[in-house]
Design goal:
CATH class: Alpha Beta
Helix content: 25-40%
Number of helices: 4
Largest sheet: 3 strands, antiparallel
Number of strands: 8
Distance between the termini: 39 Å
Order of helices and strands: EEEHHEEEEHHE
Strand content: 25-35%
CATH topology: NE0471 N-terminal domain-like
Strand order of the largest sheet: 1-2-3
Structural class: alpha+beta
C-alpha cells in the first residue's frame, strides 16, 4: 500500500489568489483560488451525492484569506466570499493538483451549459 502524500509546503501567493502545495515526493502544484473555491470538498458545493453537486459562478477574483490546519491530515481554506466549510485533505489537494487543467476546463463547460460565468455570482 502506498503512503498518502505528505505536504512539505503550503503557501499563499499573489495576495491569496493562488496556493502552492509541495509534497514529500517532489511533486508541487500551484492552484488558483478560483479552482479551489469552485471545487471545494464542502457539502455546500459537492452536495451529498453527485446529483446534488453545484456549479458556482462568479469566482474569478476570489481569494484565500486564511489557511487553517485540521488535525494532521488537512487544511481548511477561508475565502474572501466567506466560504470556509471545505476540508481539503492532503490526498484531495494532490488529486486536484494532478487534474487541475482538466478540472478547470470541465468547470468552464459546466458554467456555459448552465448559463453561468466566472464574473457573475450564481449557482446551479
Amino acid at each position: 500500500m502506498t503512503a498518502d502524500p505528505w505536504p512539505t509546503e503550503i503557501r499563499l501567493l499573489d495576495d491569496g489568489r493562488r496556493l502552492r502545495v509541495a509534497f514529500d515526493d517532489g511533486a508541487s502544484f500551484t492552484l488558483s483560488a478560483e479552482l479551489l473555491r469552485v471545487r471545494s470538498p464542502s457539502a455546500e458545493v459537492q452536495g451529498h451525492s453527485p446529483a446534488d453537486q453545484k456549479t458556482v459562478g462568479g469566482k474569478r477574483n476570489v481569494a484565500i484569506i486564511a489557511v487553517a490546519p485540521v488535525g494532521n491530515y488537512a487544511v481548511r481554506l477561508d475565502f474572501d466570499d466567506l466560504h470556509r466549510t471545505g476540508i481539503y485533505t492532503w490526498r484531495y489537494l494532490r488529486a486536484l493538483g494532478e487534474t487541475a487543467e482538466t478540472s478547470f476546463s470541465a468547470y468552464l463547460e459546466e458554467l456555459a451549459a448552465k448559463g453561468l460565468d466566472r464574473d457573475r455570482p450564481g449557482e446551479a
